[in-house]
User: Fold this.
Amino acid sequence: MSAAESFMRRAIEEARKALGRTSPNPPVGAVLVKEGRVVGVGHHARAGGPHAEAAALADAGEEARGADLYVTLEPCDHQGRTPPCSAAIVRAGVARVFVGTPDPNPIVSGRGIQRLEAEGIPVEVGPLEAECEALIEGWTSFIRSGRPWVIAKVAATLDGRIATRTGDSRWITGDEARARVHRLRDEVDAVIVGRGTVEADDPLLTARIPGGRDPLRVILDSGLGIAPDAKLLTAPSSAKTLIACVGPAAPERADRLRAAGAEVVECASWGGRVDLAFLLAHLAARGVVQVLVEGGARVFGAFLEAGLVDRLLVHYGPVVFGGGPAWTDAPAVDRVADALRVRFERAELVGGDLLVDARPIRDRG
Assistant:
């Protein structure tokens, strides 16, 4: 690894400290280097707070003059909730800037780099551009599509089952896979499940890791049949619970759930169920950038049928049930040519389980 790659890696590590905490802004990290030593580091900790560049400049103080700046995302050049970072970089006397990846946001989109170069500061895109792009993959999709990036997480047997024929499902995967799911919850803005999952498992849907934060919990419940004594509504948690139903909601049921602490959102109908595109638009409007869909089979099927899954994470446990529900009830196809296809990104062993990371291919042509 070159020195430049090492410093950009440090900036990526800084950015990762804020995963799930900056929405609707992206996670960004920055490092200032002078004569081969790090003199300042920083990351964007929360929306409305100082950007990574400003935090690193403040950390470096006068040492920033003549230093090289490594930042995972192109510095902004506009006045938002905070001043433009390009101007702060110029004022601080930074010598050179290494940008991990250009900003896909049309508000920035090259302007930050152009401003720095116009002020006589050399800018180099990279190193580790691909890794910096991956860091903001969900946010980039959010900016371009106007809806949250959707990750579907599945725990299934080798033969694709999520429970036995009697409904027993604990546990298909091992401790390491479940720990990874908790870390993923810590990094997303919301978790989505259906009422069936709540009734069958009575989950908390929290990120049970040291220093973790709990995402917004979204329950798909067309008719508001969820019990008000579910753990989601009674167990202590910093997370809020949103119940999405098909409007108009039955007033007595809605009032009962609101009294239990839930937020009830009336959505448009899609085949008698919650219109997922409508719900995602609602979540985007409140700053939700990434969501994690955790089931069950009808929910996975509905998201896949609607073409709303961006990333698919399937944890295969080393067991075979030989029956029981499959992990999705997406509509069956008659021809191989009509099947939804995916692009495999990677596969790895997580403890004793196999994790497959894939991206659905929407253009079937």
Remarks:
- The radius of gyration is 23 Å.
- The longest strand covers residues 341-350.
